[in-house]
Design goal:
alpha/beta, Rossmann fold, Dihydrodipicolinate Reductase, domain 2, 2 domains, nine-stranded mixed beta sheet, six-stranded parallel beta sheet, 15 helices, 36% helix, binds 6-O-phosphono-beta-D-glucopyranose
């Protein structure tokens, strides 16, 4: 695999530089970029927080914490030493009013010596995006070569997302705003479009005439742990469905874009969002399932339920959602998209399953009783990046024809070195190169909230609690029933 060209030297200013996201995801991704030779000499990472660190304190902290968040086999003490020399720390209380001015002035001094590309990465609470952008503008830090990266969640509903988009849009042009959805940086997700749009085998059957339904599942074994406070204000619908699952749905359902350029792809995704059937309260009651895990067992260990993890306060937040979405375009009439995500489930997996329509006629119809099972195209995002196509073949051996299903199986990463970039590493390098293809545009985010808000409103209106499921199970029975009502079942490993 040829290495991509290296972006020129730049300054990456990370607001929230001592926070969880920076330590667990961003700095490891930058370290991996260093390892891949993708950080130009002179590139600096300027962490911004209230912590009162100097550069040395910050480097010591990062050197101590970073190694545990690196993929196996990538740690090298010498490389870490090279990497941490790029790190600096500036203390700014971004929400501190006039008292915070000295910190902003320090940041201005730290950035002053360059007019190179400047990336402001906002790994802070979304409520701070407005004040941070206002501070950047007030101190004249937004140069022609400046970009801003926004982490999700972009708001908690349409109104709050618009407010954030307006505040950020008041100081940055839309083409300088990079809204991250790290699922778009995953290897299989990028492969989805290539797979579909470059193979006649798939593109010619990518429609309701040939596809019975689509399932998109992101199943996590982890609970909410230390994030219970954030999570309880969010829930699975807003934390996962509004962004990651909806983006995957868009990539599967979109019309072929006019080109591979960023705006054509984002226009095609937006068209899907605008074509999603809107929910009303009754429709939510029938086709959206919310669940919450209770105590159970995973890998032989007992684990607490969500309410125990949360501590003693009441909550009706969901840790699981399954729903049936419909894309009202001629391509998808009568082909539902089932989305499902949850925490503390029985497996760690993310996959898109395209189930083709079963053949109802054919020579071998009588052989297996019910006829050959439908073909399925299974694109796995996690734990590994693969694509499998299930096909019906003859069981080997004599004694007549008996049918069975086997997968044609391809590893999307190959066994090649260098290993493919991880999602954050790839997305950060796209920011440095100024390529917004894998980032969400303002109108996409708002259209996704427009679709999600009625679900949240219906739940609030209906009251009641989520369906319970035991930790370590595959979710609430109501999710199984959602598909059973349509005569379908969720895909489960091993392949069936
Ligand atoms: C994040 C959510 O966006 O994605 C988390 O906030 C979730 O709750 C995570 O655990 C899942 O990401 P991944 O890449 O580990 O599947």
């Amino acid at each position: 695999m040829p290495a991509p060209s290296r972006p020129p030297a730049c300054d990456i200013a990370v607001f929230g530089g001592t926070g969880d996201l920076a330590i667990r995801k961003l700095l490891p991704a930058l370290y991996l970029s260093e390892r891949a030779g993708q950080l130009a000499s002179g590139t600096r990472v300027i962490a911004i927080s209230r912590a009162g660190f100097d550069d040395v304190d910050y480097r010591v902290k990062v050197a101590g914490e970073l190694p545990r968040f690196l993929p196996a086999g990538t740690f090298s003490p010498a490389l870490l030493d090279t990497f941490v020399r790029r790190l600096h720390h500036v203390s700014v209380d971004v929400d501190g009013g006039p008292g915070s001015e000295p910190g902003w002035l320090d940041l201005a001094v730290a950035l002053a010596r360059s007019n190179r590309t400047r990336v402001f990465y906002l790994a802070a609470a979304p409520a701070l995006y407005g004040p941070i952008c206002a501070g950047l503008a007030r101190h004249d830090l937004i140069t022609d070569a400046a970009r801003v990266v926004l982490e999700k969640p972009i708001g908690h509903d349409l109104a709050s997302a618009r407010k954030i988009n307006d505040e950020v849009g008041a100081v940055f042009r839309e083409d300088r705003i990079f809204r991250i959805d790290h699922y778009l940086g995953k290897e299989s997700v990028q492969n989805l479009l290539v797979l579909r749009l470059t193979n006649a085998l798939f593109e010619s059957v990518w429609h309701c005439g040939a596809i019975d339904h689509v399932q998109i599942t992101v199943s996590e074994t982890l609970g909410v742990g230390g994030r219970a406070d954030y999570y309880d204000r969010s829930g699975a619908l807003r934390d996962m469905v509004q962004n990651h699952l909806v983006q995957l749905l868009c990539l599967v359902a979109m019309e072929p874009p006019e080109g591979a350029d960023p705006e054509s792809i984002r226009d095609a995704k937006l068209a899907v969002l605008q074509a999603l059937r809107r929910f009303d309260a009754e429709h939510v009651r029938q086709t959206v399932v919310r669940g919450r895990y209770t105590a159970g067992a995973l890998d032989g260990d007992s684990v607490p339920g969500y309410l125990e993890e949360l501590g003693a306060h009441p909550s009706d937040t969901e840790t699981f959602v399954a729903l049936k979405a419909e894309v009202l375009t001629p391509r998808w009439v009568g082909t539902p998209f089932y989305l499902r995500t949850g925490k503390r489930l029985d497996r760690h997996a993310a996959e898109i399953v395209i189930e083709f329509r079963a053949l109802t006629t054919g020579v071998f119809r009588g052989v297996s009783g019910t006829g050959p099972p439908p073909n399925r195209l299974i694109v796995t995002l996690q734990p590994d990046a693969r694509v499998r196509l299930t096909v019906t073949t003859k069981e080997p051996g004599p004694g007549g024809v008996r049918l069975h299903t086997i997968p044609l199986d391809a590893d999307l990463t190959g066994a090649s070195e260098p290993r493919p970039a991880d999602a954050y590493e790839r997305l950060l390098s796209d920011v440095l190169r100024g390529d917004p293809t894998l980032f969400m545009r303002c109108d996409e985010v708002e259209a996704a909230w427009t679709w999600i808000d009625p679900i949240q409103d219906a739940w609030r209106g209906a009251g009641g609690s989520p369906h319970e499921y035991s930790a370590g199970s595959n979710g609430p029975a109501a999710a199984t029933a959602l598909l059973a009502r349509d005569g379908r079942t969720w895909h489960q490993e091993p392949l069936s």
